[in-house]
Design goal:
With 334 residues, the chain is an alpha/beta fold. The chain has two domains: 162 residues, Rossmann fold (3-Layer(aba) Sandwich), CATH 3.40.50; 129 residues, Glycogen Phosphorylase B (Rossmann fold, 3-Layer(aba) Sandwich). Helices cover 34% and strands 17% of the residues. Helix 1 links the parallel strand 1 and strand 2. Helix 4 packs parallel to helix 5. The termini are close together.
């Protein structure tokens, strides 16, 4: 029987593995969890991991500290030696790649949840695109959200088993009510946007000034670089601290539309029938483009795109990322 260690280190990873752990079919599997400590606030969250590690700040580069701490961890080695046959990682974080590499080096099977997303540009998003491509080379089982993700792996001759199961994030949304109030929900935090953050903020501030009938709600992110100009430049925008995922989902379900650079939000917004302006040069989720999501490649494009969506904010079509039953399909496959 497989003995699986599900590793996670960030809040998005935790959100996407939780439906698997909570599904009633999980009782028929030998599954344990490990928190790497990449996001230091996770251990006090709703899920108590079976094992936990710490990231030592041994390098001025946080990403290098994560890899050094996990790949060089004697404690991690000991955990894996406790009869585990497989390690499951989610997405494209530093924790995911480091854990996949450690498992591969020990001859364990690697299961990749949310496999096959691609922009084919290692600088967008940075560093996630390079990390997920590397995980694909290590993985034995690829759990894909869409057929397009599976085709990406096929074109790369990634090897292993490929299964299209949908995205587990949507399993959290099946009971969320959908309505349309006057809120424009905003999140911006990605590394490739850090140098542009003040310019995005200024543009959003101007749009908010020109649309006093709408309520602009900026959900701040813990990353200090995304907060560098927050209070200085957003006087016409309501700024709220990071909120629990359950509360955030309610806000998505009731907002008018979104402005974001998030990857996962593109999926959640699509499932909850919301359009999203994506402030990035490219996206690894092209399935939703033109129906649910709209790329805003430069700061200067935002006003025109905003006005277009404001006049037609209810999307048509079916969410391309799954039906909210991914966890059940995954556990049946395992």
């Amino acid at each position: 029987m497989k003995k699986i260690l599900i590793c996670y280190g960030t809040r998005p990873e935790l959100i996407k593995i939780t439906p698997i752990l909570k599904n009633e079919l999980a009782q028929y599997h030998n599954i344990s969890t490990l928190c790497t400590g990449q996001h230091t606030d996770l251990l006090g969250g709703g899920l108590k991991p079976d094992h936990s590690l710490e990231i030592n700040n041994c390098s001025p580069n946080r990403l290098n500290s994560i890899f050094s701490s996990l790949a060089g961890s004697y404690a991690f080695d000991q955990i894996l030696d406790d009869g585990f046959t497989h390690v499951m990682v989610q997405g494209d974080t530093a924790s995911a790649l480091a854990c996949a590499l450690v498992a591969f080096n020990k001859g364990l099977g690697v299961i990749h949840l949310e496999a096959g997303l691609r922009t084919h540009d290692k600088k967008h998003p940075y560093p996630e695109e390079a990390y997920r491509q590397a995980i694909s080379r290590l993985a034995d089982v690829h759990l894909c959200a869409t057929t397009a993700n599976k085709e990406n792996l096929d074109n790369e001759n990634a090897g292993g088993e490929w299964h299209v199961v949908g995205d587990t994030a949507l399993d959290n949304l099946t009971e969320t009510e959908v309505s349309y109030n006057n809120d424009i929900l905003i999140t911006l935090h990605r590394r490739e946007n850090h140098k542009l953050i003040p310019f995005w903020y200024k543009q959003i501030e101007d749009i908010a000034f020109d649309n006093p009938d709408l309520n602009f709600v900026f959900v701040s992110h813990p990353n200090p670089k995304s907060q560098c100009a927050l209070k200085k430049q957003l006087s016409n925008v309501s700024i709220i601290p990071p909120v629990a995922h359950k509360e955030f989902v309610k806000r998505i379900g009731s907002c008018l539309f979104l402005i974001t650079d998030s990857g996962g939000l593109q999926e959640e917004a699509s499932f909850l029938k919301k359009k999203a302006i994506v402030c990035r040069e490219t996206t690894e989720r092209p399935e939703a483009l033109g129906t649910f999501t709209y790329l805003c490649k430069t700061v200067g494009e935002l006003p025109k795109l905003f006005n277009k969506i404001k006049e037609d904010f209810v999307p048509e079509g079916k969410c391309p990322f799954g039906d909210g039953k991914a966890a059940e399909k995954i556990l049946q496959l395992l």
